[in-house]
Amino acid sequence: MDSTYCTNSENLIINQMVGVTSENTSFFRCHAILSNERAETFKWLFDQYINIMGTEYYPSVVVTDKDPAIMSVIGDFNYSFYHLICRWHLITNVKSTAASRLGNMDKAEEAGEQMKLVIFSDLKQQNSVITGQIMYFIQDAHLHKEQKHLILFQKI
């Protein structure tokens, strides 16, 4: 989920929700033209998406740029999805903050590289934990009872 600014004649915000298939192909789920990025606007957007798409196409993960309004909507309401912060936005924000505070683009780039090291340092350890969680999610959410028993039998 991301918003684009000042790209149309009315200077309205264009918000996009993008989905990703199991084959890592992206597709558009929803576009919305918004007048602002306040929490009540994002609540309305989530509610409209759910009303139109129904629970069959309910997202299981939402990735955002840590916008406070979106964060408050996700925190205040019982939407049953995981919320992740976009790594690209996180690294970009570190660079821009470092550039404004240090006044030096080389130092800002270095800060961005250091942030990448922090983000990816425990990736191998995290992957082993996450892989188990992902397999459990796939089994729980997408397999029929008979298939779950078959997987359990194969593990023994």
UniProtKB/TrEMBL annotation:
Domain MULE transposase: 1-93
InterPro entries xrefs: MULE_transposase_dom
Protein name: MULE transposase domain-containing protein
Lineage per the UniProt record: Eukaryota, Metamonada, Preaxostyla, Oxymonadida, Streblomastigidae
